[in-house]
Specification:
This protein is α/β, with parallel strands linked by helices. It folds into 2 domains: 133 residues, Alpha-Beta Plaits; 222 residues, EAL domain (TIM Barrel), CATH 3.20.20.450. Helix content is 35%, strand content 24%. It has 12 helices and 15 strands. An 8-stranded mixed β-barrel has the order 6-7-9-10-11-12-13-14, surrounded by 4 helices. Strands 4-1-3-2-5 form a 5-stranded mixed beta sheet, with helices on both faces. The longest helix has 20 residues.
């Protein structure tokens, strides 16, 4: 089966490109890409290139082989290659920063992305927008090659987790500090007796898996109800890498059944499961993205997590481990770790979620470093049975 993918790369010109050279590149590339139904955007600034190309997997791979062999540039760095649910660009275009507008404005396929701030915001939110904007702002340049997101109706009632087992579903908001609003609701399998999230210590693996499956189904149904505008984050805590693949496949099927494609559904995957059957998990992660399901590496910074897992799974977001967040405003070692991680995530267009934030000091330091997404008692506690509508932001 052919996949729709995008590939984003940066490179450095080996020779100076004049206005005529850039116009010739624009004309030839636009003609070839149109013939192969390839869309995207190529940007050029002071000898640096960044390009997004999107299309069928075989066509993109063949084109990238040709691009990689082109002697006019080097330092070719693949930033992201992943499955996508739909195209971001209607066609293929090119933008220049260091050529006079009068020389290129009439050229077919010229894009004013680098001259017009409004055209940045006109792009649909997502990875391509983030990386193109990062390039415009100075990332992924040749001199610093490693610096640099139909109404639905559901007739069936949402199933409840069996209260006789002392469990139910709770929702805790994830907030956006910049918009001062709820960004998503995380669905939690909840222990009503202990008043906390269920863990593997509370139940044997099989009952816990069943409880969380019911919680995921109920969360999707609530999100798909008429009038609901909530995005949801749902946990994937399987008992093995093989179970992870089966669980994520079941979630894909459930999302199609419940028709929640107008919602952002994020699967929070415990990073420990990426150390097992790597090829199978990578394949199912790509399937999730094809079906408009986002991937979040949860508890990042704990257990066996590592930067290689970011490269391997190319998630949409990561959620920081609670121990990294705790007292971050006074711990210099943690601050250095977070700064380095933020640089990596910014370069790759990955959102960072700071969970378990409990003090204004923690929040202030994390926000000052550019983190926008937060969760914790400082903003709102889990609410049993329904999605919270009010939050607190300092």
């Amino acid at each position: 089966m052919t996949r729709l993918i995008h590939l984003i790369y940066s490179s450095a010109a080996k020779t100076d490109f004049s206005a005529n050279d850039l116009l010739a590149l624009l004309a030839s590339s636009r003609s070839k890409n149109t013939a192969h139904n390839i869309s995207g955007m190529l940007l050029h600034i002071e000898g640096s290139f960044l390009q997004v190309i999107e299309g069928q997997e075989a066509d993109i791979d063949q084109l990238f082989e040709t691009i990689s062999a082109d002697p006019r540039h080097g330092n070719i760095t693949t930033i992201i290659r992943e499955s996508i649910a739909r195209r971001v660009f209607a066609d293929w275009s090119m933008g220049f920063a260091d050529v006079k507008l009068a020389e290129i404005d009439a050229a077919d396929g010229f894009n004013a992305f680098l001259q017009d701030c409004g055209s940045v915001m006109a792009l649909p939110p997502g990875r391509a927008q983030k990386l193109l904007t990062a390039f415009k702002d100075g990332r992924w340049r040749s001199r610093q090659p490693r610096s640099a997101r139909a109404d639905t109706q559901v007739a069936t009632a949402a199933p409840s987790v069996d209260p006789l087992q002392g469990t139910d579903i709770a929702f805790q908001p994830i907030i956006s500090a910049s918009s001062r609003s709820i960004w998503s609701q995380e669905a939690l399998a909840w222990d009503t007796r202990m008043q906390r999230e269920l863990t593997a210590l509370d139940h044997d693996a099989e009952p816990l898996s069943e409880i969380e499956a019911l919680a995921r189904e109920r969360a999707m149904l609530l999100s798909a109800e008429p009038g609901s505008i909530q995005n949801i984050n749902i946990n994937v805590r399987p008992t093995s890498p093989q179970d992870a693949v089966a669980t994520m496949r079941a979630i894909i099927d459930l999302s199609k059944k419940q028709d929640v494609q107008d919602r952002q559904i994020t699967l929070e995957l415990n990073q420990d499961y990426l150390n097992g059957d790597v090829n199978s998990i990578i394949a199912i992660v790509q399937d999730c993205k094809e079906n408009q399901l986002n991937i979040c590496l949860d508890h990042f910074g704990a257990g066996r997590s590592g930067l290689n897992q970011i490269e391997m799974s190319q998630p949409n977001s990561i959620a920081l481990n609670a121990k990294l967040v705790r007292d971050i405003d006074t711990n210099g070692a943690k601050q250095a770790i977070i700064r380095g991680l933020m640089q990596t995530c910014d370069d790759l267009g990955i959102d960072v979620i700071a969970k378990h934030v409990e003090t204004t000091g923690e929040y202030a330091w994390l926000a000052s470093e550019g983190i926008d997404l937060f969760q914790g008692g400082l903003f709102g506690n889990p609410q049993l049975g329904s999605m919270p509508t009010t939050i607190r932001i300092p």
